[in-house]
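[step 3/7] inverse_fold.run input=structure_tokens len=404
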């Protein structure tokens, strides 16, 4: 069984204003609770026309705050206490009206008053409205004012809208908002940095339907993309075939073979300066020489065909050898003698930092244990959730970059 997520429990004050996307706030509440956080919901009067407070009460396990004049707290000071108790203040959806009231500092209901009283509590608004409303100069002015006041705006995304129109103004999906919220608590140690990551397996075709691959799930590379994005980096993920959805915040380049991965990585490095390269992909060492076109046929009585293999490029070693090489981090999935094999691999590949782990104990799992190896020695990291591990690695990388 995998251990629980480790992002420690935080208190989230979730404001819901009036808009059709209010129904997605139910799922957001559920995801926050599932991730171990405590959620206190505040709804505007308009929001209660879209979803019932009882639904949010059941999902959050707490009575919903609705009104300045019927306070939940004995102090009668909900408009101050609720936000001072919170580790993050999130408004999702944030309607055009709510944004306007917040931008000019009005306090004409409980939610807007809490936004005035928020003090230093990290605050995130997820705008949601019709595309023409979002494009209106007044809304754009208010959005800019809120940013200047220290509010983080998440989205809006683009796509089909409840009104049937298509464009900018969709609220981000609840899973994306969970990432945005948890990012509020991370230090921006990679702000201004560009991070290139390879992830997942590669698939090396033999004939039209068969090929060579491995059991890498891509989870470690995905966790690294999220951790680097949370730390403020611009992230590009070059990903082999996996079952995972493209991660929020990163630009994903999908590839299939090692040669395609090599070309995609070099194209990124040639296009723009890159500060860090993390090779988390389980690149197939060999590829079959392509068989005849189509599918190899089984011939009755004939010996089975065997693929002829050729060596794939070592992407990590090639990147590390470039004159403009970014700070390179490699992975080593070993079956035995982890430390000795990983140390030798670090030197052979010419990379400053290598993460060693036992292949069979990490592939496909949500957690991992590893050893960090650099020129000065080795440090073990205990088994932990891959996201927590990725966050540790990002900190290690950031401190080494700062010292370069
Ligand atoms: O040689 P080995 O496959 O054990 O090396 C593992 C490390 O090298 C990983 O960081 C992996 O992403 C990278 N690698 C690569 N290109 C290859 C093989 C491995 O970038 N062809």
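[step 3/7] decode complete -> sequence:
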């Amino acid at each position: 069984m995998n251990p629980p997520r480790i992002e420690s429990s935080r208190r989230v004050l979730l404001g819901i204003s009036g808009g059709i996307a209010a129904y997605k706030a139910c799922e957001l509440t559920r995801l926050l609770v599932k991730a171990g956080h405590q959620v206190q919901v505040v709804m505007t009067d308009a929001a209660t026309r879209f979803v019932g407070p009882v639904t949010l009460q059941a999902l959050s396990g707490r009575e919903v705050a609705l009104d300045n004049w019927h306070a939940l707290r004995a102090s009668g000071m909900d408009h101050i206490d609720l936000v001072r108790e919170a580790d993050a203040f999130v408004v999702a959806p944030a309607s055009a009206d709510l944004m306007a009231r917040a931008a000019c500092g009005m306090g004409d209901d409980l939610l807007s008053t809490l936004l005035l009283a928020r003090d230093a509590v990290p605050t995130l608004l997820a705008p949601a409205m019709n595309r023409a409303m979002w494009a209106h100069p007044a809304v754009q002015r208010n959005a800019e004012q809120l940013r200047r006041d220290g509010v983080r705006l998440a989205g809006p995304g683009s796509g089909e809208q409840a009104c049937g129109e298509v464009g900018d103004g969709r609220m981000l999906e609840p899973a994306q908002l969970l990432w945005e919220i948890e990012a509020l608590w991370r230090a921006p140690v990679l702000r201004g940095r560009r991070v290139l990551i390879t992830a997942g397996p590669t698939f090396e075709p033999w004939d039209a339907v068969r090929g060579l691959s491995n059991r890498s799930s891509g989870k470690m590379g995905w966790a690294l993309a999220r951790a680097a994005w949370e730390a403020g980096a611009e992230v590009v993920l070059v990903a082999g075939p996996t079952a995972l959805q493209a991660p929020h915040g990163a630009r994903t380049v999908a590839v299939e073979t090692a040669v395609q991965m090599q070309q995609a990585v070099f194209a990124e490095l040639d296009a723009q300066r890159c500060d860090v390269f993390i090779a988390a992909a389980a690149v197939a060492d060999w590829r079959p020489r392509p068989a005849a076109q189509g599918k190899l046929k089984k011939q009755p009585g004939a010996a089975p065909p065997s693929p002829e293999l050729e060596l794939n490029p070592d992407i990590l070693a090639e990147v590390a050898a470039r004159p403009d090489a970014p700070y390179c981090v490699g992975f080593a999935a070993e079956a035995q003698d982890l430390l000795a094999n990983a140390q030798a691999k670090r030197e052979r590949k010419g990379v400053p930092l290598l993460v060693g782990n036992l292949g069979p104990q990490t592939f496909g799992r949500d957690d991992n244990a590893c050893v960090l190896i650099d020129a000065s020695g080795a440090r073990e990291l205990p088994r932990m959730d891959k996201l927590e591990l990725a966050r540790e690695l990002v900190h290690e990388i950031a401190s080494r970059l700062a010292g370069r």
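[step 4/7] annotate
The chain has a mean pLDDT of 93.
Residues 194-402 form a domain with the Rossmann fold fold (CATH 3.40.50.10300).
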